[in-house]
Amino acid sequence: MGDSPLLTDLYQLNMMQAYLANGLTGTASFELFVRRLPPGRSFLMTAGLAQAVEWLADFHFSPDELAYLEKTGRFDAKMLDYLAGLRFTGDIDAMPEGTVFFPHEPILRVTAPLPLAQLLESRLINLIQFQSLIATKAARVMLAAPGKVLVDFGFRRAHGAEAGLMAARASYIAGFAGTATVLAEMLWGIPIYGTMAHSYVQAHEDESEAFLSFARARPDNLTLLIDTYDPEAAARKVVALVPTLAREGITVQSVRIDSGDLVAVTRGVRTILDNGGCAAVKIFVSGGLDEESIAALARSRAPIDGYGVGTALTTSQDQPVLDIVYKLQEYDGVAKRKRSTAKHTYPGRKQVWRRRAADGTIAGDVISLDGAGLPGEALLAPVMRDGERVRHDPSLAEIRARAARELAALPPTLRDVGVPGSYSVAIGEALNALTAEVDRRIAASR
């Protein structure tokens, strides 16, 4: 289902038929960008390009899909014939996944025949928007909890199976240690983590018996959930069981706490573990956490070694959407520009150049026309030409390493998850000049 070209809006198909009827089949360039930062955000992080390229590489209408479209009676024979042979034959330029970006910066450009390029809009936005949203959220959690183990616990609250799975991928790109979602390991090799639920403890009459039976059944990477009843009492039971388990070759790696005043509870549990000779047992917490609550726990110096982040991550609960758009910038060699109030665009095919300070931190971006050759790192790179991949697809490990470098390069003003900072994004002279030229042309034609 996720690969179907019918995962689109009807108006895309309506426009395709009108383009074909009027001979508007020349080359078009569309760019995908975010208009504005969501409140509370200082930056965004790209993700989802790999899924977009996979979709484009296999783009086609199946016989069943064509039969459905014909049966609707909405589209003429010329349109249906066009769709029958349609493949992605265009070019893609994009920022690599894991790149930090800012409003108005194109993160992906499609150059292809106009009807084809138009049809791609809805699904490309869908694929890039969601993973970029979640990667950004995960990056903020990373900044709130440096050096801690972070795990995606959010599949069950995600808005559908694809969202839950892609959230595991996006959060791993941003630096999470792994996910609880098993399919993510099978598809991409993302490490998976799992402990136990309260139901397992409740199914036993005795809490110690529950811990012992679980440990013997699942001895590897053993984590025991200790807040079903009283976490401090359960911590004492863990201390009492550790020597028995050690004689059987089983090590308790950590305990998990999912509720309560996490500062007070973790301090109490840490004291019990340490006094009982279990200083090596780590404390992992979960339960309604986000970057701000994690930052508060860090400020309190709560003795926490790792966090499971669920609903807030996979739904980006505080800011669940990006104002992301896909706009026509050039058609048949002529630059195009939208001038709607508060929704204007800059015309032409563009590139983003990034400057860095002497210490390697990012210091400012310039958006200008592709080919302007400005100083700094050009962020958009060729991904597909004439419908074919033109470079090695980076591994997930390579994407993750890039994201780590990007987060390390953030200046202090962008690192505080509680106070949004500002960053300089300038418009280059060549782009300003083209914008003025297009405005004159528009004014003359009205």
TrEMBL record:
Pathway where it operates: Cofactor biosynthesis; NAD(+) biosynthesis; nicotinate D-ribonucleotide from nicotinate: step 1/1
Gene3D superfamilies in the record: Aldolase class I, nicotinate phosphoribosyltransferase
PTMs per UniProt: Transiently phosphorylated on a His residue during the reaction cycle. Phosphorylation strongly increases the affinity for substrates and increases the rate of nicotinate D-ribonucleotide production. Dephosphorylation regenerates the low-affinity form of the enzyme, leading to product release.
Record-linked CDD domains: NAPRTase_A
Domain Nicotinate phosphoribosyltransferase C-terminal: 377-434
Keywords, in A-Z order: Glycosyltransferase, Ligase, Phosphoprotein, Pyridine nucleotide biosynthesis, Transferase
GO biological process: one example: NAD+ biosynthetic process via the salvage pathway
EC class (word): ligase
PANTHER family recorded: NICOTINATE PHOSPHORIBOSYLTRANSFERASE
Task of the protein: Catalyzes the first step in the biosynthesis of NAD from nicotinic acid, the ATP-dependent synthesis of beta-nicotinate D-ribonucleotide from nicotinate and 5-phospho-D-ribose 1-phosphate.
Protein name: Nicotinate phosphoribosyltransferase
Taxonomic path: Bacteria, Pseudomonadati, Pseudomonadota, Alphaproteobacteria, Hyphomicrobiales
